[in-house]
Amino acid sequence: MKVLHTSDWHLGQQFYEHNRTLEHDAFLTWLSNALKQHAIDVLLISGDIYHTATPPAHAEQQLYAFIKQAKRHCPNLHIIIIAGNHDSANRIETAKPLLQAFDTYVVGRFNKHSPEDVVLTLHTQHGPLTVVAMPFLRAGDLTLDNQHPDAYQQGVHNAYQSSIAYAVDIKQGPLLVMGHLHAKGGDISSDSERNITIGGFDAISATVFTEHADYVALGHLHKSQRVAKSEFIRYSGTPMPMSFSERHYQHQVLIAQFDKHTCIAVDPILIPRHQDVCLLPETGGATLDDLCDLIEQLECDIDAPPPYIRLKLNANETDSQFRAKIDDALANKHVLFCGIERVKSSTHNKHDSQLEDLGQVEQLDPVRLLDLAFKEHMDSDECAPASVQKCLCEALAFLSEVSE
Ligand SMILES: [Mn+2]
């Protein structure tokens, strides 16, 4: 039996105001071919299908068109989709009754009073399997013991335990667990996973998946990776770069292969990159003249999809006409312009350089901002005390529930 694991599609994402529909289309066409080529029985999509809770209509249509195409290529395919932190738990379930007719199961929300609802048994051509399809867990979905110092982690732990215990009872074939969370020990990219993993407070120990799971298919972190050094607890990563910091990731999907009861192999398949993502220059900054020369030297294939380009200009560049000069240099280039970063040269510590470009402020996570404010106001080198950080995290968790 073969299971293909993917996550974090972020359909509907605009990349620096550029529409990514064609890139997503290219990925989805590639994926439906891969499903057929590798004779996949089950497709798992571990959250963040959409980039926002209210995705544009064309993004929803993309998902449905993909499901239709995938089922045409592989009539016996089963698909399971869980909600991520970017998805609306309610909205993603709208088409649930209809999608069941396509052997597609959508789980938007965890109900603590019926943990069995997220447990599915599938009967594939190559035998049965049991799946705990746990969506992203918001504090409001959990029973929180506020006396406990790690109330959220404890709540998440209990949610997984109760659903997995039910799954073990009724288990047929291998047991798979899906989740959308930040598991301890994973690498995060600096600027594109929404800061739900505030200051590490939400990182969850891999022990929540227990020894009962034969494979754990995770989403949320954008870089493909193993968790806690296990072959069988994996992030598939996002199928395409979500930020410039992800430009060197090898984007991939994972194929997990099972015999009757256990996972015998996990193999990545690399996803061809539809559009390149480049920083100019790749490291440090450049003077205005050098930058214009670099743009001049760009060789762009007019028949290929244009690359995304972000420019890095030395902060001490004083030419007030810099924007007009850069626009001129870019005028006949087949590229998608993604702004200019002002870069201070060397010797500054990382804290200063993070705040040079106002555009980067919104990418700082709240705890970082708290630390910066604390250092400035208290004239201190210390970070804000853990109790203050925790207080901020609780306020943010509350706000994210209210805005849902
Ligand atoms: Mn996410």
Automatic annotation (TrEMBL):
Pfam families: Metallophos, SbcD_C. Residues 1-223 form the Calcineurin-like phosphoesterase domain. One of its GO terms (molecular function) is exonuclease activity. Residues 286-377 form the Nuclease SbcCD subunit D C-terminal domain. Keywords: DNA recombination, DNA replication, Endonuclease, Exonuclease, Hydrolase, Nuclease. InterPro entries: Calcineurin-like_PHP (IPR004843), DNA_Repair-Maintenance_Comp (IPR050535), Metallo-depent_PP-like (IPR029052), Mre11_N (IPR041796), SbcD (IPR004593), SbcD_C (IPR026843). Heterodimer of SbcC and SbcD. SbcCD cleaves DNA hairpin structures. These structures can inhibit DNA replication and are intermediates in certain DNA recombination reactions. The complex acts as a 3'->5' double strand exonuclease that can open hairpins. It also has a 5' single-strand endonuclease activity. Belongs to the SbcD family. This is Nuclease SbcCD subunit D. It comes from Pseudoalteromonas aurantia 208.
